[in-house]
Input
Amino acid sequence: MCGIFGEVSLSGDCLKRTINGIGSLEHRGYDSMGVVYKTKEKTNIAKIISPDQSKSANDLYGEISNIEDFCPVALGHTRWATCGKISLNNTHPHKGEKSYLAHNGNIINVSKLKKLLGSEKFVSETDSEVVVKLIDKYYSKSGDLINSIEKVLSLATGANSFVLFNQDFPDKLFCASKGGPLLLGKTKDSVIVASDPAAFLSRDVKRENLYKIEHIVAVSHNSWEIIEKKRASEIVDPFLDNGKGDYPHYMLKEIFEQPQTIKNALNGRTELDRGNAHLGGLHDIARDLRKVETFHFVGCGTAYNACLYGAALFNRFGIDARAWIASEFIYNHPYIKPNDAFIFVSQSGETADTIEVIKEIKMKGNICLGVVNVPDSRIATMTDAGVYIQSGIEKGVASTKAFLGMISVILLYAVFLARQRKMTIDTGIGILKMARELPKMIALILEQEDKIKKMAKKILRFDNMYFMGRSMNYIIAEEGGLKLKEITYKHAESYPLGEMKHGPLALISPDFCSVVIAPNDSVYAESLVGIKEILCRNGKVFIITSDDYDFDLPLDNIRIPALPQKYEFMYPFLTVIPLQLISYYIAVELGLNPDKPRNLAKSVTVN
Ligand code: F6R
Output
């Protein structure tokens, strides 16, 4: 959460570049934005807040009168509020005696650190101000800035990263990380620090010129000094991003990229002649995986929904598996057998709740695998092995294409592990061939955009609704309901359709609608029974079904391509698409920005 961007350059253009830089990181938080910048005469600071998500980094220009002044150093921040409400006082960068600090993370023992500052008065409610004031306190006593940073870094607990500008070092930035994401990149005339590879996309930063900060680094205009080198520098793939293109929002662009998302995930990984998945990332650990009794999927939010899919699919293929919500895992005191393995699923690879479970499992000594999008992210580096989903950068805060990438890779895992066990070569060939047809089918669904938009407009009048399905499409009901809540702020609950009669049916009325996912699969007849139970109580039903079923019920419907019943476990790849578009268009109709849902941020790096 929160985006940090800083730049040091003799070009003198750092202010504008930093405003652009934090603009490229808004997916990490957009409650408020601020920048501190050095000009010949003085150190300047500008801040704005955006409690209604109406502002972006460019609005900082309105607060700056000396934009054309020579600026060799600047440091910016875009905030997702954690410690303290959305206000100018709480907006970063925060000021100490001589230093300014932009911070990402959560200082768990902030009250302890505050005590070290005695009667010091604070302008903000943030833990970040405590950090900068404490660094400056030690610095004023010792005259050694690096030592002071080091001391505070070691005292603070929690995953944190920050960048600091100190007026005694007018041509430098000091960067520190203790488990928080922070990257350095060298351009032809500057050095950039940023909390996310997205910041390097529009800049001329070569892969070999990237460095992931592990401890403390002092940065000047053409080099950096690693204060304590914990690991060799790592290469980070910043992906390729061409902006929104002709799309009004990243979310819509990412929904439409999904045929390619599956191709990327499958690319070079399907061995049709052997009916197997070729997963280089699992190669060295394959023999150990053969011995695994139970696989545990772990993730949060949309990634958790992908975990639910993974567990259901593995079980269908005869492999014992279950799914866990990362933030709940520890409280369940789960019994883990020595031969169990874990699969951690995450788009960002930085989700703190998921990372906590990895630490616990590593302590127990079980195998940790990853299904991750962002290369070299923490989850990618902490796990023993894994497979990248290769979805490319996902900027929409509500995850869409990454979900599809996750379930694509999970399907490959399932084939690989099942082929190690009882799955025949012919079955493997059939599944992989079918999987390669999915991009075309998704493209056909996307062609129905107008029809889906019309359905969204009809759903718009309902403030409360159920999303329901049976079997694996119940998982898609969960994902559809989550998407709707996130970006439309409407109330949605997701249920297995068969549960209706056990209580939820009581809410059905003409003012309550149900979105039912019911393709013509092996549970279709049962789904129809559930739909009829709603209709005879005057409830409104919208159905996502397949194009091979001719029903006689007067239902608003979206038809997706039909799958042979033996491949019905691939319906989630198709049924999720209309649900993403429905939420998107409801948000747009309501005048909301789907790329910036309130209260949310893309990478959830706090517990
Ligand atoms: C939903 C969404 C979140 C994330 C969750 C996990 O649209 O984006 O629910 O899925 O915060 O994030 P990652 O996948 O980065 O671990």
Observations:
- The pocket of fructose -6-phosphate is lined by residues 300-303, 346-348, 351, 354, 398-399, 482, 486, 603-604 (CB under 6 Å).
- Residues 425-446 form the longest helix (22 residues).
- Residues 487 and 597 are 5 Å apart (CA to CA).
- The chain has three domains: 3-228, 242-445, 448-595.
